């Protein structure tokens, strides 16, 4: 499925001195990301936000059709740049063979132009939206509660909550999605806070046909259902059981296990690979990740983060790499065997086929991928103990010599050697403390 890059983090324009220039900054990175093996970019919300109290990350949508073209809410450009700069970024990404996903906020809005009386509540509310684009204008009937019954399962803070059963809202969302794909150039969507609206809304977007430059666009979608495995399963079923155009979901259950792996000494690897995560129960719908923009400060993974990246970039699912890890924390380590860049390359060349667990105890784990298509398969060994481990395992690479493709250790010095697999499939793997080794042909 490739490897996705989350091409932003919270307050990234300010943190990297790229205010109103983030799209330009990203454009300068797409060639190297494509060369490294990434296949897609996830961009932050591109529409003009309400910008209450200053420039925002876009999760407070005001004008869906203002991507940095109208002088409103404190600036012409968004915090990330202009519409033309966004289009130039997408064009450059497509040239580098990268698809581009928009972060789509469909649950809530902010920054209304005036208050209106909501007669159902008998309250004045900020629900009158008259943006300069003059497209997808909203009034009180577009927000819950409205004259249209809406079994809306969730709200986000105190922002006005869109009523998706209002035909005006539904049409506005569908037309906006079509515009982003066919005119702006996006190839899919990350759906923000999907617990705030019914799965039928996403089905309506994905069941529609799209074309750009005379060619059909195959839309990809992934939902942010930040909840338990059971809730994510139910949400995926609510979307995918009724359509052939299936969407994915972020694997939050796995992410919390990965944090425990990295940050809790003595964490059992049995718990890491137990059921109840998307990657091993619904791998074709799982988007795996280590951190994202919502995990900040102490909520981030703080220790031995490469153990987590080694896991998601060798196992099933659609792995997503976090910009802050790759660049800010300098975990890319280009050219070396122990960084994310090498793991991305290994994923693309070797991580195909089903997973077969060869060894599992509290501190040591060995698995293999059998290979599929151009991906030739791999053997991955992970050691969570304080000392080195060595075990004999039986794998599917009989009569072959497997070379180390990527590795990392708690100690700086580690030099793994090739392993020879005998005719019965037996080989001996050695892994340093708090480290991993990935082997392949």
Give the SSE layout.
Elements: E1 4-6, H1 12-15, H2 22-27, H3 30-36, E2 40-42, E3 48-49, E4 61-63, H4 83-95, E5 99-104, E6 114-118, E7 123-128, H5 167-184, E8 188-191, H6 199-206, E9 211-212, E10 215-216, E11 220-223, H7 229-240, E12 248-250, H8 252-263, H9 269-272, H10 278-281, E13 286-289, H11 305-312, E14 318-322, H12 323-328, H13 340-350, E15 355-360, E16 364-369, E17 378-383, E18 389-394, E19 401-408, E20 419-420, E21 426-431, E22 435-440
Parallel strand pairs: 1-2, 1-14, 2-5, 5-8, 8-11, 11-12, 12-13, 13-14
Antiparallel strand pairs: 3-4, 6-7, 9-10, 15-16, 16-17, 17-22, 18-21, 19-20, 19-22
Helix pairs in contact: 6-7, 8-11
Question: What is the CATH top level name of the largest domain?
Answer: Alpha Beta
- Sheet with the most strands, sense and barrel status: 8 strands, parallel, barrel
What is the overall pLDDT average? 96
- Architecture of the largest domain, CATH level 2? Alpha-Beta Barrel
């Amino acid at each position: 499925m490739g490897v996705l890059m989350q091409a932003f983090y919270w307050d990234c324009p300010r943190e990297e001195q790229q205010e109103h220039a983030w799209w330009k900054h990203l454009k300068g990175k797409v060639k190297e990301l494509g060369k490294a093996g990434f296949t897609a970019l996830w961009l932050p919300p591109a529409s003009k936000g309400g910008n209450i109290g200053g420039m925002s990350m876009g999760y407070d949508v005001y004008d869906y059709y203002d991507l940095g073209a109208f002088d409103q809410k404190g600036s012409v450009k968004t915090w990330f740049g202009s519409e033309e700069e966004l289009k130039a970024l997408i064009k450059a990404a497509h040239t580098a063979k990268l698809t581009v996903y928009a972060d789509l906020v469909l649950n809530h809005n902010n920054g209304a132009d005036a208050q209106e009386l909501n007669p159902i509540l008998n309250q004045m509310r900020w629900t009158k939206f008259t943006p300069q684009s003059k497209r997808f204008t909203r009034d009180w009937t577009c927000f819950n509660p409205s004259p249209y019954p809406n079994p809306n399962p969730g709200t986000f803070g105190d922002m006005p909550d869109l009523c998706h059963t209002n035909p005006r809202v539904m049409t506005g969302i569908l037309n906006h999605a079509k515009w982003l794909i066919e005119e702006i150039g996006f190839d899919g969507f990350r759906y923000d806070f999907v617990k705030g609206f019914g799965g039928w809304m996403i089905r309506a977007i994905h069941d529609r046909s799209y074309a750009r430059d005379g060619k059909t666009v195959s839309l990809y979608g992934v939902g942010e259902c930040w909840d338990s495995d059971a809730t994510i399963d139910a949400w995926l079923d609510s979307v995918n059981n009724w359509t052939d155009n299936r969407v994915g979901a972020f694997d939050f259950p796995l992410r919390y296990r990965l944090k425990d792996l990295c940050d809790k000494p003595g964490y059992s690897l049995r718990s890491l690979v137990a059921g109840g995560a998307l990657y091993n129960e619904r791998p074709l719908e799982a988007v795996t990740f280590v951190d994202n923009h919502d995990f900040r400060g102490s909520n981030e993974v703080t220790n031995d983060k490469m153990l987590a990246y080694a896991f998601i970039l060798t196992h099933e699912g659609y792995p997503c790499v976090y910009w802050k890890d790759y660049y800010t924390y300098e975990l890319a380590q280009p050219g070396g065997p122990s960084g994310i860049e090498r793991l991305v390359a290994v994923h693309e060349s070797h991580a195909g086929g089903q997973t077969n667990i060869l060894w599992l105890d509290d501190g040591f784990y060995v698995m293999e991928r059998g290979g599929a298509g151009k991906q030739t398969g791999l053997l991955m060994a992970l050691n969570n103990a304080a000392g080195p481990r060595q075990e004999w395992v039986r794998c599917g690479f009989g009569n072959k010599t497997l070379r180390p493709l990527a590795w990392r250790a708690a100690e700086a010095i580690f030099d793994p050697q090739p392993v020879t697999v005998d005719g019965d499939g037996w080989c001996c793997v050695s892994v340093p403390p708090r480290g991993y080794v990935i082997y392949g042909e």
